[in-house]
Amino acid sequence: MILTNTTNYFAELVSYLSEQMGLGGQILAYVIVAAIYLGFFAVAGLLLVYIERRVAAFFQLRLGPNRVGPWGLLQTIADALKLLSKEIFGTNRKDKLLYNTAYYLVIIASLVALSVIPFSIGVQAYDLNIGVFFISAVSSVGVLGIIFGGWGSNNKYSLIGGMRSGLQMISYELSSGLAILTIILMAGTLQMSGIIEAQRDGFFIWRGHIPALIAFFVFVIAGTAESNRTPFDLAEGEAELGAGYHSEYSGMGFAFFFLAEFINMFIISAIAVTLFFGGWLAPFHLTDGLAYQPLWGAIWFFLKVSVMIFLLMWFRWTFPRLRIDQLLTLEWKYLLPIGLINIVLMAILVYFNLVF
Amino acid sequence: MEQVTLNTADLKSQEYFLNMGPQHPATHGVLRLILTLDGEVVKNIEPDLGYIHRSIEKQCEYEGYKQIIHLTDRMDYLSAHINNEAVALAIEQALEIEVPERVKVIRTIMGELTRIASHLLWWGVMGMDVGALTTFMYAFRDREMINDIMEETCGARLTMSYSTPGGVMFDLHPNFVKRIKEFIPHLRSVIPKYDELLTGNVIFQKRMKGVGYMSYEDAISHGASGPVARGSGVSCDRRKKGPYSAFASQDIDFKEIIYTEGDNLARYNVRMKEMLQSLNIIEQLIDNIPDDGIQAKTRALIKLPKGEFLQRVETARGDLGVYIVSDGKKNPYRVKFRSPGFSNLNALIEIGKGHLIADLVAIMSTLDFVVPDIDR
Asked: Do B137 and A62 touch (CB under 8 A)?
């Protein structure tokens, strides 16, 4: 197993403050780390919404938001403020408990998943030794939120949306899990930082021959499905279900679902970048000898992630939506068998040491 | 009006009602469909009409013949010009007026432009209904050019009211021919791009092929017309079967697009090909528009002779029939519009059954409803 010998800045902060101030300092450190992540969550969410709208606009011969602030950067903030000030109301006879916990589940799931993603060298809230597994486990909790929202709203459109989402996520978790496993076979560790360290001599997408490429495609498809985006946005299915599972949410309830969707897109992209493109590692060791390594790492990480996010946005604004039976056919009849065969292929490659 | 009642006693244990509309993005207006669903499978469809009923037929009985034309704009607002033309033709037929050749050509060109605009809008919305949101903007960009041409000549972009009994309201704008000549190559060049974006997409093909099958017999028995019927192999183009305006007076070479598959893709292809045919028609007419006036002599107050008059035209949606009963007064005794949308909605009830909700939306899209056309 490959262990990282770089420092984790968050862990250092915790140990420093607890040494200085005891238990109180430790709690303070945790609060600071949580605040940083919440801040990142909000900023990244708003920024992604802005980018999505701009990218969509350029795909659609429009300009997109360009009036509020420089280049319309403050537009999403204005929208968020509007959503904050809106009255929260739902349907009559909704299931209050499920209805009100739904969006917290969704947002907590994506927030927790965010915590194990390595943004740069040592910039990772918790370098869990089962990092990748942890992410896929936690992101499944988000499905519960969507199903709760669909069921609790007391609206048939929401219910259909929620059930579709349940079907979709449970199915596609398998494929994304298999794709992740394929790469883990090469890395030999589930730890996110370990996976990145293992790619120092070349990213897995190059080193893994064809199986890694197949795994990448499977992962991107499954990831798009998991983040509920076109062509897999059946849970919302605008033309069919109005807004699907979040039809009956207003104000911040809706905003949480909306933000979580964008953060999920970020998480999917971040995992894909970590597994296949070496996370914060510089391609071809371009910036290896330079000073400020963590900064360079962050730059490379966010660059790669933006390319992935752009890819996902490209899908969204060009593809039509699948039908629910086609969605399940694609998963169970194509992606899953391909993934299974692929993992065997990769196992053979790794066993005979044929990877680069 | 008959009230649609939901009787839960008739439902099987797994089934439930879903109220689709009147406010629903897929119904393109205020159409209400009461669906009986089993899971997501549509077991029964019951349309409930009347949400945008404005008694246009009744209003016509209180208006003079010249005013009726303005009401027809608001029926199928996407083929407004063709509706106008239909009423004008019916009145001219009753008065036995021969309109100048220039009027015929102008009306035909405008009619075909309207058809292209309508099909473009349909294409954009079709993409939205199957989840491809970008098509909408592309279609509207190109439709805008037609709207501008319309605006220049007759001052209105959607509800033109351009035809009058005996002629057209204004002469063509000097820029008209130039603008059309810019538009034709432009649309010719973008339609292949449309195909790249949507038609060729594998997901789109899978969503369309074999879905919403309507047989030749069904199309006839439901009274379907226009691209809907032509997608099932029924030859029903009024421009060929009962030529009017320049289709009768000039030798126009165009093909009636007929597909025999009867599914969504066939109806889709019919409309896509029809746009090109409409371009052909315009191209043949645009170069030699005769110059013999834009108005035949009519009296200020039109009175139709006693009798019944019928004029059928081909709108973007199909066969529009204008049936006027006159008792010799200055306003009609009875006006009846046979709207294509209403019959096509009939077809939906049959062909939508057994499909998933998503397919129902796609089928509705290929049937191309304009709800004010159904309700009037």
From this structure: yes
